[in-house]
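Q: I'm writing up a methods section and want to include an example of the input and output format. Could you take the sequence below and give the corresponding predicted structure tokens, formatted cleanly so I can copy it straight into the document?
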Amino acid sequence: MTSLTRAAVLALAPSLLTGATAASAHAETAAPVTTGACAKAALGYEAHALPPIASGVVLVTVTNKGNTSCTIDRFPTVTFAGLDGSARPVPPVQSGPHRLGAKGRLYAALRTDDRSGAARYVPSLTVTANPGHPGGRFTAAEIGAPVTGIAVYDPITTLWKGTVDEAVAALPKNP
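A: Here is the clean output for your methods example:
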């Protein structure tokens, strides 16, 4: 799906979503609400390699810095400097809206290298929760990757999850 199509899906999100409870920034209830796509300035990003660093797993976090709920894509778009394409979502799903509560935080686990082929090394990766926004760029040093760079071969990402544990558990084991 193209970025334009994914952005269009996010723009239509208000008619597709349900409300969130005050107790949980990411939980959904049956009450319909009108929620628009998150503004670029409302989103903050973090990315950190998880130990052991050789595992090629990066924890990605998106935070809604705003005071109102908004929608993001159901999985992060992760691209790698100098390489075509992006990490593919697991399970394989189409782009679609996901509600992010006011001041809410969601997590995704990213495996940059499955060790099944010859990895290429890149100096940085970029994460966005809305393919129409530039997102956050992180260098290998910023995420805690080795000096040689971020190893990339057949990268995958989980859908956004409510906790770190859920995100890591959703990442399939290496073959």
